[in-house]
Amino acid sequence: MTPSVFLQSGDLLPEALNISFKLVPAVMVVGMLALFLAIGYVFKVADTEGMWVAGRSIGNVENGMAIGANWMSAASYLGLAGLVALAGFYGLAFIIGWTAGYFVLLIFLAAQMRRFGKYTAPDFVGDRFNSDTARAIGALTTILIGFVYSVGQARGMGLVGLYVFGTDYVTMVIVMMAITVGYLTISGMMGATKNMAVQYVILIIAFLTAVYVVGFTGGYSTVLPQIEYGQLIGELSAEFSEPFANAGFYLWIATAFSLIFGTCGLPHVLVRFYTVENEKTARQSTVWGLFFILLLYWSAPALAAFGVDLYDASQYGPTFAANGGMSGGEGDLIVVLAAQLSNLPTWFVGLVAAGGIAAAIATTAGLFITASSAVSHDIYTNIINPDATQRQQVFVGRATIVALGVIVTITAFDPPALVGELVALAFSLAAIVLFPMFFLGLWWENTNRQGALAGMSVGLTLWVAAVVNDLIFHFSDAFAEFVPAIGAALVGTPLVFVVTIAVSMATDEPPERIKKMVRQCHSPEPMGQQQSAEDVVMSADGGQSPADD
User: Fold this and answer.
1) N or C: which terminus of the chain carries fewer CB neighbours within 10 A?
2) Where is this region: Disordered (predicted)?
3) Whole-number Å distance between alpha carbons of 244 and 89
4) Which of 148, 76, 54 lies closest to 356, judged by CA?
């Protein structure tokens, strides 16, 4: 994998995966989807509090499970093993990046974001920097993240549905996305959160069972496949086992950096801290979430190694070896393929496939909710129509979910890269544009409106240039080498920090009211379940000022 060229998504070899209608797996998947729709209906909402933040009523373990399901998308369940299978050592950058970020989140952002107490990430940016322009840029970034991230989920759902139902890929993308959009328009954040807890149980049971059963039946492991798979490394190809055979040291570091700090800037992750009752629960749910995520991430490289070995030894291995190795389509389904090539019962492979669909739907739900709230709450209500009723806000939010679903579905018909790579682009954007605003906004009270606008504008411009250069025009090899789209944050995030700080220092300090809100985010005094830092400051000062711009 070169810095400027993504791994191609590639075609799937139908015979290798036994693509055909399978009754038992189909019944399992249909039953699972019906359960999701039923839960969405039971927990349907009609007000904005329930639609966006689930009434701030979610407990620590349940929120931890929702964080896990929200996080472990098709990129984790399918794409992570696929990246390791196709890119070997380079794939480990994704595992490190997608886990280490939670420690930064736990220490620096979780409790503080909960104390700030808003609905959305753009809400935080707009109120903290006293700017509707900053709010709009934050909302645009949130929508872009939701779009790019969701395309990867739609691809994952389509590929897995292809295995179970034996139809064509496009049909499965349409059906799966229609079901996802259907239950989200009914349920909002409350129903999505309840579903995420159920989806986590399904996906983690399916994945861990696959790791252990494939490991045991293939003779790769006896007790702990997560450790014992190491004996395979020396037997696999150099591209899989040798450090930096597929990507250089710089790209490895840049990718890991982008994913670590992108984790701390993802709106659909941060909104989980707004759904809990207080900052203590926010911290606890982060720890639980990290534990639930660890169970899959610790196991993914093992299943990738098993799958690569099984594939190479199968009748299909020589064919693809002659054509340069496994295709992207095979890699994205290595989790299901490993179970298939182990000659396990069809119902078992169907269980593994169902877990992939659950993972993709859970994350898509979180992404669509945050994107719809960015449009309805941050753009429509706060900028266009401040007098909007709750009914109007919920309607706009639901319309946004439908519109985004249509756009994502069409794009997923022919995606430009692998599932994991598409998702990594969203992390890169979050790390460059949003993470600096969250960190400086919570930890340096002198960060002002001018600094935030300058930093966000520079970051968004840099990310767009990197993506266009990598995926569309390829206007500069040198730029692609040092600012790859997947790892653009290594250059972009420090640059945005410097620009934001420099402009803030060169211009007027923010109002005292804003500084008090930042201090309140670090106060040891407890706050009410529905209370925000702004509420505390307003009660003390007796009012608030409008946005500066």
Assistant:
1) C
2) 520-549
3) 7
4) 76
Query: Which is more confident, 276 or 233?
Result: 233
Q: Closest Cα partner for 123 from 110, 113, 108, 109?
A: 113
3-state helix/strand/coil string of 319-331: HHHHCCCCCHHHH
Lookup: tokens for 63: 């929120």
Q: What Cα–Cα distance (Å) separates residue 335 from each residue in 82, 151, 237, 350?
A: 8, 19, 19, 11
CATH annotation of 23-414:
1.20.1730.10
**What pLDDT does 198 receive?**
84
Closest CA to 256 of 64, 457, 488: 488
Q: What angle do CA 377, 74, 39 make, to 5 degrees?
A: 60
Contact 274, 360 (CB under 8 A): no
- Sign of torsion over alpha carbons 448, 452, 454, 455: positive
Helical H runs in 413-448? 419-429, 435-443
Among the listed residues 4, 491, 499, 5, the one whose alpha carbon sits nearest the alpha carbon of residue 258: 491
d(C-alpha 412, C-alpha 420), whole Å: 14
Whether 412 and 158 have beta carbons less than 8 Å apart is answered as yes
Asked whether the predicted pLDDT for residue 164 surpasses 50, the reply is: yes
Residue located via tokens 């600096």: 436
Place of tokens 């069972």: 209
Name the pTM for this structure: 0.83
pLDDT at 166 (0 to 100): 84
Widest distance between CA atoms in the chain = 75
Residues in the chain: 549
Q: How far apart are CA 271 and CA 366, in angstroms?
A: 9
Q: What is the mean pLDDT of residues 374-392?
A: 88
Q: pLDDT tens-digit profile of 527-546? A: 766 677 777 887 776 555 55
Distance of CA 356 to the CA centre of its chain: 14
- The separation between CA 203 and the C-alpha centre of its own chain, rounded to angstroms, equals 16
Report DSSP letters for 501-512, one per residue. HHHHHHSPPPPH
Domain residue spans in the chain? Answer: 23-414
Q: How far is CA 389 from the centre of its chain?
A: 31
Q: What is the DSSP string of 328-354?
A: HHHHHTHHHHHHHHTT--HHHHHHHHH
pLDDT at 2: 40
Question: Could you give the CA distance from residue 255 to residue 266 in angstroms, rounded to a whole number?
Answer: 16
CB of 336 within 8 A of CB of 17?
Answer: yes
What confidence tens digit (pLDDT) does each residue in 6-29 have?
A: 444 445 555 556 778 888 889 988
**Tokens 């597929």, located at residue:** 246
Please state, in angstroms and as integers, the Cα–Cα distance from residue 7 to each residue in 95, 431, 458, 474, following that order: 18, 22, 28, 15
What was the pLDDT predicted at 73?
72
- Mean pLDDT on 36-52: 69
CA distances from 523 to 103, 350, 477, 510, 532 (A): 21, 50, 49, 20, 12
Amino acid in position 442: L
Which pair of structure tokens corresponds to residue 142?
A: 């949130």
What's the confidence (pLDDT) of residue 418? 65
User: Number of H helices and number of E strands within the chain?
Assistant: 29, 0
The secondary element (H helix, E strand) that includes residue 76 is none
